[in-house]
Specification:
Layout lengths: L4 H8 L1 H25 L3 H8 L3 H7 L10 H10 L2 H24 L2 H5 L5 H33 L6 H29 L2 H21 L7 H4 L3 H6 L3 H4 L3 H24 L5
Helix pairs in contact: 1-8, 2-5, 2-8, 6-8, 6-9, 6-10, 8-9, 8-14, 9-10, 9-14
């Protein structure tokens, strides 16, 4: 008898999580290892001053472009784009596939035939996504902390943890959106496409707001704004911006559970 949907889901993720861990840690190690070659490089600072504003808007993390400082370097090379992109891929893929993937494979009817309620299935599937993303966040933090100590980066473990937590919350938000769409429609491809499109749109709005006055108020609704504006690598985790990400993720999760509970499931 199936006793834990969460336990089974986490077991199913073991192999993919191992590869995610190896790839993430290796990528972080590579980026961190390059930092000593550009630290205190005055010529690089002068070059960045010549960058067009549109490029700065896409590269800067926390509103400041400074590749010669540890926080500026990690922000620009990791946290402005690549790390969020990797975490979003993991979270959206898991969230969209948690219900819709089972439905596509024809295994959802078997899962629902066990003495487990629909709501419990949905909640535990969603929890498995959160556990996976949070675990990747721990891997990211450990890789950053070890790398920072190895190359004498002047960043505290707390600030590295804050940046890692921010990207985890951002990824869980979009994973919850993908879960909502997949649970509500039963279509994994649709859920992935819409969630990724929403993330790209929010990223563009946040990045271009510094250049386009009309985007100033929509920027405040972008999850990427709340992810980056507090500059967690320098200032730590801001509770209000973190609360925004948690609230949106929770709302999407609740809607997804309700939609799945009420929907006729294809078998």
């Amino acid at each position: 008898m199936l006793r834990s949907v969460l336990g089974k889901s986490l077991r199913d993720l073991r192999r993919s999580f191992l590869w995610w861990t190896v790839g993430l840690a290796g990528y972080v190690a590579l980026i961190v290892a390059v930092y000593p070659t550009i630290r205190d490089n005055e010529e690089l600072e002068e070059l960045m001053d010549t960058y067009p504003e549109v490029l700065k808007a896409f590269v800067a993390f926390g509103g400041e472009l400074d590749f010669t400082s540890a926080a500026g370097y990690l922000g620009g090379e990791l946290f402005s784009f690549m790390i969020p992109a990797l975490f979003l891929v993991a979270a959206v893929g898991n969230g969209a596939g948690s219900i819709a993937g089972e439905e596509d494979r024809g295994t959802l009817d078997l899962l629902l035939s066990t003495p487990v309620s629909r709501r419990r299935v949905a909640v535990e599937k969603l929890a498995s996504m959160c556990v996976e993303v949070a675990s990747l966040g721990i891997v990211l933090w450990l890789a950053l902390w070890i790398g920072a100590r190895a190359v004498d980066m002047e960043l505290s473990a707390a600030h590295l943890a804050a940046a890692s937590a921010s990207v985890v919350l951002l990824a869980i938000l979009y994973g919850a959106v993908a879960f909502m769409l997949g649970a509500g429609t039963g279509r994994r491809g649709l859920a992935i496409g819409v969630a990724i499109a929403a993330a790209v749109s929010a990223y563009l709005v946040n990045s271009l707001a510094a250049l386009v006055d009309a985007l100033e108020w929509p920027q405040k609704l972008s999850p990427f704004y709340h992810y980056a504006v507090a500059d967690p690598l320098r200032q730590g985790l801001d509770p209000w911006h973190a609360l925004f990400l948690v609230a949106v993720a929770a709302a999407a999760a609740v809607v997804g559970v309700v939609l799945f509970d009420r929907r006729d499931v294809a078998t």
